[in-house]
Amino acid sequence: MSAPVHEERRIVAGTRLRLWSAGTGPPLLYLHGANGAHWLPGHDLLAAHCRVLLPEHPGWGEDDLAGGLEELADLVYFYLDLLDALDLAQVHLVGHSLGGWLAAEIAVGQAHRLWTLTLVDAAGLWLNEAPLPDLFALSPAEATRLATFNPAAAEAALAAAATPAAQAAQQRARAAFARVAWNPYLHNPRLPTRLHRVRVPTLLLWGAADRVIPPAYADAYARWLPDARVVLLPECGHSPPREQPTAFARAVLEFLRQHAPAAGRLA
Amino acid sequence: MEFHCFHLMPWPYLPPDFDARYSSAWVTCPNALYDPERGHALYHRYLDELELAERLGFDGVCVNEHHQTAYGLMPAPNVIAATLARRTQRIKIALMGNAIPLRDHPLRIAEEVAMLDVITGGRIISGFVRGIGCEYHSFGVNPTWSRERFEEGIDLIVRAWTEPGPWSHWGKHYRVRYVNPWPRPLQQPHPPVWLPGTGSIETIETAVARRWPYVRTYDTIDDIAVMYDDLRERARRQGYEPSPDQIGWMVPIYVADTDAKAIAEAGPHVEYLFHWLSKRPAEFSQPPGYVTPRSTRRGLEVARSRSVAELNARGIVVFGSPETVRQRLAEAHRRLGYGKLVGLLQFGSLPHEQTVANMTAFAEEILPFVRALDGPPAPAATAPREVPA
Question: Interface pTM (ipTM) of the complex?
Answer without folding.
Answer: 0.94
